[in-house]
Amino acid sequence: MASLDDLKKRIASVKSTQKITKAMKMVAAAKLRKAQESAEKGRPYSEKMNNLILNLSNGISDKQNAPKLLLGTGNDKVHLCVIMTSDRGLCGGFNSNIIKKAKSYFSKILDDNKELKIITVGSKGNDQLKRTYGDKIIGNISFKDSKNINYFDADKVGKMVIKKFEDDEFDVCVIFYNQFKNVITQIPQAQYIIPLNNDSEEISSEESYEFEPDEDEILNNLLPKNISTQIFKAMLENSASEQGSRMSAMDNATRNAGEMVDKLTIEYNRSRQAAITKELIEIISGAESL
Amino acid sequence: MSEEFKVEIVNPEKSFLSKEDVVEVIVPAFEGEMGILKDHISIISFLKPGIITILSKSGEDKFFVEDGIAEFRNNNLSILTSSIFNLKNTDKNRILDLIKIAEEESNKTEINDQVKYLIDQKIEVLRSID
């Protein structure tokens, strides 16, 4: 059995860990509120953008000559996966969930003898993937320096993806991120951005638009923007998820630390009592033997 | 009964402005300024750098945009833009800064004509603001 002193030290150390996790939980809670707010505020833009593109692509007359960003290259050979993770750890299963989802996708791709390319956003994803898929990673972007998520960061990623598409480096692009449902549930998502996924319900309006300049030019300009917007949306969802996940992880950690302190305190008191009893017995039996 | 329609301006971060009592909106469309009144035909148009003027019952608002898309449908005008600010609460220094940045960009040699045209437009509009 550990000595009294050891127990005392352990209790102190668990208590200070508890303090840290508690503080982290509070910070995460404050950040979560902000992140959630901006995720909600960002939704109208991406929804409107999506509607616009749907309207446009429904109205397009010449489907064969539609921009490649909309329809894809027609091939299905090279898949580019953009994995969005966080830059910091201690957020529970947040990163692992994305990576797990991504890895199952990767092995499916590789089993089909297709080529795989990976871009990681956020350093944690890069850390976890580089051991197994190191040779597949063609880029890593991290936004450690920017405090808040802003559109320009997303635009950077978007431009990179588009440039690679124009250079014919891949046929299909998928982004992986965590969708924020609530504080305890985040759902890892795989979303196709090239070609554009049009399975959301068709807008039934037969109304035709007037275009200025013409349809093709609008689509050509809009589609790259849409990619950045989708990436931005994913980043916002991701950051809300990260904070939510961290908050619940730290909440659990604080509770566990509390339980541990209780257990150790009982053990400490017991062994103190045992020591006292032992001393008393020694004194009494010493006195009796006289 | 009325001649009013709804305007919504959103940027990626948030819904920037939403108004129900708008009478006329003038947007800097790609092929020239365009005034939109109620019951305009459905239209999608790109914006070039310029000033959006919103005339409503409650007064007049002016915004500077660099790019964006305007969509008008069923008497709903949505403007999507990633760069917008209200001219009312912007000080002159910020505008001067923007002019300076734009001028530097315009002097670069590697940009193509279309980009240069847009930047020159931007400078012109910014200069005309005050």
Question: What would you note in describing this structure?
Answer:
- The complex is a heterodimer of chains A (290) and B (130).
- Chain A has 290 residues and is an alpha/beta fold.
- Chain A folds into two domains: 4-21 and 250-288, Helix Hairpins (Orthogonal Bundle), CATH 1.10.287.80; 35-248, ATP synthase, F1 complex, gamma subunit (Pyruvate Kinase, Chain: A, domain 1, 3-Layer(aba) Sandwich).
- Chain A has six helices and six strands.
- A five-stranded mixed β-sheet of chain A has the order 3-2-1-4-5, sandwiched between helices.
- In chain A, β4 and β5 form a beta hairpin.
- In chain A, α5 (151-166) crosses α6.
- The longest helix of chain A is centred in the last third of the chain and has 74 residues, at 215-288.
- Chain A is elongated and about 115 Å long.
- Chain A starts with a helix and ends with a helix.
- The mean pLDDT of chain A is 86.
- Chain B is of the alpha+beta class and 130 residues long.
- Chain B has two domains: 5-86, ATP Synthase, domain 1 (Sandwich); 92-127.
- Chain B is built from two helices and nine strands.
- Chain B has helices spanning 92-107, 113-127, and strands at residues 5-10, 15-29, 32-36, 43-47, 50-56, 59-65, 68-73, 76-80, 84-86.
- In chain B, strands 1, 2, 3, 4, 5, 6, 7, 8 and 9 form a nine-stranded mixed β-sheet that branches.
- Chain B is globular and about 50 Å long.
- The interface between A and B is medium-sized, with 29 and 23 residues.
- β6 (210-212) of chain A pairs parallel with β4 (43-47) of chain B, so a sheet runs across the interface.
- What does the radius of gyration of chain B come to? 15 Å
What is the beta-strand fraction of chain A? 5-15%
What is the CATH class of the largest domain in chain B? Mainly Beta
Give me the number of helical elements of chain B: 2
Tally of DSSP helical segments of chain A: 6
Shape of chain A: elongated
Q: What fraction strand of chain B?
A: over 45%
Helices and strands of chain B, in N-to-C order?
Answer: EEEEEEEEEHH
Whole-number mean pLDDT of chain A: 86
* Chain pair forming the biggest interface: A-B, 29 and 23 residues
